[in-house]
């Protein structure tokens, strides 16, 4: 009688429960509100910002899902998400600079307050609602803060995926172990 087979595929889980995904949705939705309200429709920046925000969110989804099969693909896609996020960060910073608006410093009381709020909340509808009544300068600075937080969080997720790989190996190793177990070796 053979032993029960240990599954070698990881379960991807529901990415909608991941805090990095929920933060990416906030960034995507507020960015859409911001570009509709603040940027000329014919501006190339509109498409760039929209695509960067969407790319971040979608690559998190794909990375988490494909991570069930390939750690390498997961890390690559989360890296692409970080790259898109940083592109969007630069667009918000450019907006502030080019419009001669104030960029909040890291230790500014508004930045500290925003960091605290962003850390505690991840409801996209709440963020959009609260940003709709704020100035372009304030929204851009809120997004800079939120993007920096998500960038940090994504780095931690990548670190965790790497640590899991070191501890548990990749799919080929797990498949070989299950095959050896099945053959009784």
Protein architecture, described:
Helix 1 (19-38) packs antiparallel against helix 2 (44-66), helix 2 packs antiparallel against helix 3 and helix 3 packs antiparallel against helix 6 (136-168). The chain has helices spanning 19-38, 44-66, 71-98, 109-120, 124-132, 136-168, 171-183. It has 185 residues and is an all-alpha fold. It contains seven helices and no strands. It starts with 18 loop residues before the first helix and ends with a helix.
Rg is 20 Å
Count of helical segments? Answer: 7
Which class do the helix and strand fractions yield? mainly alpha
Succession of helices and strands: HHHHHHH
How much of the residues is beta strand, in percent? under 5%
Please report the distance between the alpha carbons of the first and last residues: 14 Å
> Roughly what is the average pLDDT, rounded to an integer?
89
Q: How much helicity do the residues have?
A: over 70%
Low-confidence stretches: none
Describe the global form: elongated
Major sheet size, sense and barrel closure: none
User: Total strand count, please?
Assistant: 0
């Amino acid at each position: 009688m053979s032993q029960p087979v240990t599954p070698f595929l990881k379960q991807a889980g529901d990415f909608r429960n991941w805090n990095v995904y929920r933060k990416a949705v906030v960034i995507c939705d507020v960015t859409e509100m911001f570009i509709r309200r603040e940027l000329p429709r014919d501006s190339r920046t509109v498409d760039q910002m929209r695509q960067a925000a969407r790319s971040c969110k979608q690559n998190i989804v794909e990375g988490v899902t494909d991570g069930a099969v390939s750690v390498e693909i997961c890390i690559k896609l989360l890296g692409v998400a970080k790259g898109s996020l940083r592109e969007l960060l630069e667009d918000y910073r450019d907006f502030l600079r080019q419009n001669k608006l104030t960029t909040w410093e890291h230790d500014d009381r508004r930045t500290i307050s925003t960091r605290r709020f962003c850390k505690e909340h991840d409801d996209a509808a709440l963020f959009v609602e609260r940003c709709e009544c704020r100035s372009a300068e304030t929204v851009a600075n809120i997004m800079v803060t939120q993007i920096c937080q998500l960038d940090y969080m994504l780095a931690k997720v990548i670190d965790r995926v790497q640590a899991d790989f070191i501890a548990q190996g990749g799919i080929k190793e797990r498949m070989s172990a299950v095959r050896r177990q099945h053959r009784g070796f």
